[in-house]
Design brief:
By secondary structure, the chain is α/β, with parallel strands linked by helices. It has a single domain, classed as DsrEFH-like (Hypothetical Protein Ychn, Chain: A, 3-Layer(aba) Sandwich), CATH 3.40.1260.10. The chain has 4 helices and 7 strands, in the order βββαβαβαβαβ. It has a 5-stranded parallel sheet with strand order 6-5-4-3-7, with helices on both faces. The chain has a two-stranded antiparallel sheet with strand order 1-2.
């Protein structure tokens, strides 16, 4: 259970959805991954992670981040494998950034091609949605 405290009100989050709009080379990606892993370890059900806007760059198999920088994709792969974490990629946002599903080698295999309808579905089943 993940507890969020606001003054005297305590909200329990049982189901969480996360929207990633920040690119993989951003410091917010580290924060998002830490937040997600903390929630999962606390027993929160993560109904899905939706990659939107520049966040779709996380799925780009062609992106090359310097070896001395944070490698977000390895952390997404680990969380996906360990927790069967659903990772949804907005294909419209991806195509605007040159990432196409026409060539399956362009997109890491851990990502599911989705549209904004999936974001609506995630928001309807989650107790809370957080954006990074």
């Amino acid at each position: 259970m993940f507890v969020i405290k606001y003054d005297l009100e305590i909200n329990t989050v049982n189901k969480l959805a996360v929207v990633i709009t920040t690119p993989p080379y951003s410091n917010l990606s580290v924060t998002a991954l830490d937040y997600i892993e903390t929630a999962l370890k606390a027993g929160v059900e993560l109904v899905g992670v939706f990659f939107y806007q520049d966040g779709v760059m996380h799925a780009n198999a062609s992106i090359q981040i310097a070896s001395d920088e944070f490698q977000a994709i390895s952390h997404w792969q680990r969380l996906h494998q360990a927790y069967k974490l659903p990772l949804h990629l907005c294909i419209t946002a991806a195509e605007k950034r040159g990432i196409s599903d026409e060539n399956p080698l362009n997109i890491h295999s851990i990502f599911t091609i989705s549209g904004l309808g999936e974001l609506v579905e995630l928001s309807s089943v989650a107790d809370r949605m957080v954006q990074f």
